[in-house]
C-alpha cells in the first residue's frame, strides 16, 4: 500500500502571520515540517498550498508542492483536493506547524490502517497526565473502545468520573488527549470532503465528529507524548531555541 503525506499550508494566521515562511533557524518553518515527514516511511511528501510564495519556497528548497483552491474552509478539504491527483492508498494529513513531529508517529498512523482493514481513518492520542489538562476545554479528549476505535471526542472531561478523581497514573490509557494528526484511506477522504457538518460538530467545534456522526470507523493509536506545535510567536521562539540546542548537542557529540 502506498502512503502519501500531505502538508496543508497557508499564509493567513491571526496569531502568527506568514507562519510557514518564518525562518529564524535558516530554514522555513514548513521546511522543517517537510524534512521531518521525509524521514517517515512514505512514498510521497507534498505541500498543498493556495499561496504562490509558499509554493515557490517549497520548490526552492527541493520539496514537492501543489497549488490548491483558496476557498477551502479546512485543511482536510485542502488535503482532499491534493489527494485527488495522487497515486496513493493512504493519505496522512500533517499540519504545516508541526516541526517537531516524530517520523515514527507518522508511520504509526499509516500502520494502523494497514493492520485494520475495517478502519476508514486513523488518528493519535497520548495519555493525559494532570487534572488541569483533563479539565481544559482546549485539550480535546477521546474515548476508545476495546478494539482501539474512537467512541467519542469532546472538549469536556471524558470519561467522566462519577466518584472520586480520575486515575492518571502511568500506564493508564483511559484518559487520552487527542492529537490533530490523521491518516485516511484515499477514497474515504475524497468522500468525507463532501459531507455536511453534523450537529455534534457544530456544538463541540470538532471536525472529527462529522466522521463519527456519519458512522465512520476511526482507529486511535497511542504515543508517549504530543509534539509541540507552533501557534503563537512564543511557540515559534521556543521551537527556535529547541532547534539550536539540538544542533549544538549534535555538533558536540560529533
Outline the structure in words.
- With 254 residues, the chain is of the alpha/beta class.
- The protein is built from 9 helices and 9 strands.
- The chain has helices spanning 29-38, 52-60, 75-83, 103-115, 131-135, 186-192, 199-204, 208-213, 233-253; strands at 3-9, 44-49, 65-67, 90-93, 121-127, 141-144, 150-154, 176-185, 218-222.
- Helix 1 (29-38) links the parallel strand 1 and strand 2.
- The protein is globular and about 55 Å long.
- The chain starts with a strand and ends with a helix.
Features:
single chain; 9-stranded mixed beta sheet; alpha/beta; 254 residues
Write a short abstract of this structure.
With 254 residues, the chain is of the alpha/beta class. 34% of the residues lie in helices and 20% in strands.
End-to-end CA span: 37 Å
The helix content, as a percent range, equals 25-40%
The share of residues in extended strands comes to 15-25%
Instruction: Please provide the count of β strands.
Output: 9
Extract low-pLDDT stretches. none
The number of helical segments is: 9
What is the typical, i.e. mean, pLDDT? 93
Rounded Rg = 18 Å
Largest sheet: 9 strands, mixed
From the helix content, strand content and strand pairing, which structural class follows?
alpha/beta
